[in-house]
Amino acid sequence: MIRSCLKASRTFISHCPVALSHDAVSQPVLVRRGLSMGLWPFSASPRDFSLPNASWNAEMRQVYDHYTALCEVKTEDSEETGPWHKLPSYNRSLKHAAGGVYLSKLIQSKARLFTRNKKEYGAAFEYVIFMNKQEKRCVCAFQAGHLLEGPPGHVHGGAIATMIDTVTGTLAGYLVGPVMTANLNINYRSPIPLGGVVLIHSALDRLEGKKIFVNCRVTSTDESKLHTEATALFISVNMGHLFGM
Ligand SMILES: CCCCCCCC/C=C\CCCCCCCC(=O)SCCNC(=O)CCNC(=O)[C@H](O)C(C)(C)COP(=O)(O)OP(=O)(O)OC[C@H]1O[C@@H](n2cnc3c(N)ncnc32)[C@H](O)[C@@H]1OP(=O)(O)O
Q1: Taking every annotated instance into account, which residue ranges of this chain make up the domain Thioesterase (predicted)?
Q2: Of 47, 92, 114, 242, which sees the most CB atoms within 10 A?
């Protein structure tokens, strides 16, 4: 399993050339028009937020175990593992984002990925994404913590949108490299209980030049109940797009 997860992270990282943890050890630095980044920007031990922790309930563990087992399946004709890979998940995507008029040193040093900005286990977004590159789809197990309340006892629609953006964006990024969300359409069909676990299924619809069309469904873990449906459009971008280059 460790080997397949390492392989998955390498594949993902190769699509996200500057993805890393904020704890990353400084390495030789490339400085180009205000954007500086480590040439090998990965920490030896970044915290992977998508591993099981004490806040995960039994349902979350069950889904994790189910898909982890699929990651370990060997194909018939080779020693390679099957098409499923668990993606690691860190709390920072860029270590140094020195460009940008509004980006102070303080903001740079404190910036964190929105869904991974709580150190407290179980308080907000607990999730793990499993990718199936062959089928161009992924599944995310999402356990919504107490800080994500919208309607009493249920998950905030913005938190659901955040997760849909994250999962569809991760799929698009995994398949084609850096992307930004251009359009997100969401239909909320039934509320998600706070503390509950849902599956977020996402699949590629089609590629049209720079445009990546992705669909998404949020369901109960047994898939009998539909909570949310969405479509998303991502546009491939150069990293320079984020720094006015
Ligand atoms: C760079 C990423 C780094 C990755 C690092 C990896 C770490 C991984 C870690 C963790 C994973 C977490 C994953 C989270 C994912 C979340 C992602 C977000 O939330 S992104 C924030 C919200 N989005 C914005 O702020 C965009 C703002 N908009 C823009 O920047 C531009 O408008 C942009 C890039 C979307 C398009 O700009 P143009 O100049 O590149 O492209 P044009 O020429 O305008 O459009 C290209 C084609 O797309 C159509 N298009 C553009 N926008 C459209 C729209 N809204 N609806 C329909 N079509 C649209 C156009 O009509 C055109 O189509 P025709 O080629 O002519 O057929």
Answers
A1: 153-224
A2: 92
Of 180, 206, 211, best ligand 1 pocket probe by most atoms within 8 Å of the beta carbon: 180
What is the edge-to-edge ordering of all strands in the sheet holding 125-132?
Answer: 84-86, 125-132, 137-144, 197-208, 211-220, 226-236, 179-188
> For residue 180, how far is its CA from the centre of ligand 1 (angstroms)?
4
Model pLDDT for residues 136-154, shown as the tens digit of each residue: 999 999 999 999 999 999 9
Question: Is 165 labeled as catalytic in the residue annotation?
Answer: yes
pTM of the predicted model, to two decimals? 0.83
**Any atom of ligand 1 within 6 Å of the Cβ of 178:** yes
Instruction: Report in angstroms the alpha-carbon separations of 202 from 24, 96, 172.
Output: 30, 30, 10
Place of tokens 């969405």: 230
* CATH class of the region 47-92+114-243: alpha beta
Q: Which atom of ligand 1 is nearest to the CA of 115?
A: 12
* pLDDT tens-digit series, residues 50-103: 999 999 999 999 999 999 999 987 766 666 677 899 999 999 866 555 555 566
